Amino acid sequence: MLLDLAVSPLFVWDVFTPTLRHETAAGQAQLATVFSVGLLVFMVGVIVGGRLADSVPPRSLALISAAGCSAGLLGSAAASSVGALIGTFGVLLGGATGLGYATAVRVAGTVGSGRGLALSLVVSAYAVGTAVLAPVTAVSLRAVGRSWTLVLLAVSVAGILSVAAVLVPGRTADTRPARHRRASGGTPVRVHPRGPLVALWVAFGLGSAPALAAFAQAGSLAGAPSTGTLALMLLNVGNFVGRLLAGPLSDRVGRIAALHANSVLLILACLPLAIGTTGFLALTALLLLGTQYGALSTLAPAATSDAVPGHQFGTMYGLVFTGWGVAGLLAPVTSAELASRVGFTGVFQGFLVVAAVAWAGVATHARLVHRQSHGDPSDRETDTT
User: Fold this and answer.
1) Which residues of 110-130 are buried (b: 16+ CB within 10 A; e: fewer)?
2) How many other CB atoms are found less than 10 A from the CB of residue 139?
3) d(CA 379, CA 89)
4) Contact 161, 3 (CB under 8 A)
5) How far apart are CA 102 and CA 140, in angstroms?
6) Residues 117-175 pLDDT 10s
7) How far is CA 204 from CA 69, 131, 262, 331, 347, in A?
8) Its pTM surpasses 0.85
C-alpha cells in the first residue's frame, strides 16, 4: 500500500500547471505534454517493473523507486523549462512510480490466500493517495511556492518508500507450483496462456476507456461546467469504492463472475449518458462509471494472477496493463475530438459498442480459462529452455 502511495505525485500534475504557466510562459498544450510523457513512461515502468519483480527482490525495487521518485521531484523543483520538466517529472518520476506500482501489485498478486482483498487494498491506496495529495499540494503551493512544494513532496515520498522497503520481502519467493519448478535433472516448464491474456487485455483496455474519457470531460458530461468539480469527485469516490470492494467480492463469487458483473455495470453506467441525460441521473451514471473503472482496476490483475504461474505474474500483468495504457492515451483525446462533431451523447453511444466488445473479451477470457483448467492442450504452450 505504501508503494502505491508513491504513484500519487504523478497524478496531481494539473495542480502545478497554473503556476507553471506563469513561471515558464508555456502554453497549456506544452505543459500537458509533460503529463502525457509521464503516463507513457509510467506504463513502460509497469511493463519493465513487472518483469523485474519476477526475479528481483521487492525491497531492492522499492529502494530504486524511492531514488527515482526523489530525483524526479527534486529535478522538477529546479526545472525552469518544459523540456527539463519532461525529463524530470515525465521520465524520471513517471518511470519510478511505474516501477513502484508494478512491485506493489506483484507482491499483492502472489500472496497465498485472499489475493483479491490484498489487491484491493493495494490499488485503493493509489486512489486514496491521489485524492488526499491534490488538496494538500494546492495548499502548499499557496504557502511556499512550486519549488519548495516539490522538495517537500520528494522528502515525503522518499520517507514513505523507505518504510515500504523495510516492510516488503527482502528476497523473491519461489512462487512456482511444484509442477513448474525444475525437477532433478530436468528442465523448467513455463506455461504461457496467451489466449486468456489477450482477451483480458481487450477487456481491460476497452473496459477502462469510457471512464478515462469521463475523467477528462466530467463537467461536460454532467451537463454544466459548474458541476464539474462534483462530477469529478463522484468519479473519484466511485473509483475508490470499486477498487476496495471488487477484490474481496471476487474472492467470494469468483473472478469470472465478478468480471461479468463489471461488464453489466459498464453498460448501465454508459446508458444514461448515451441518451443525453443531465443533472442527477448523469451524476449517478458517473458515480457508477467510476465504480466500474475502479473495480476493473482490481479485477484485471487478480484475473491475470489466476491465469498464470506466480513466477510469471509480474511480467504477464505488465503486458496486460498496456491495454490500460493505450486506452489512457487514446480515449480522452479521441472522445474530445468526436464530441466536437457528434456531442458527448454520440460519444457514449459509441462507448456502448466499446462496452459490448469489452464484455465479449471477458466472455472469451472465461471460456479459454475454463478450457485450460480442464487440460485442453491446444490452449497451452510449453517451452523448454
Assistant:
1) beeeebbbbbbbbbbbbbbbb
2) 10
3) 42
4) yes
5) 29
6) 888 888 888 778 877 887 888 889 889 999 999 999 999 999 999 999 999 888 765 44
7) 27, 23, 11, 13, 19
8) no
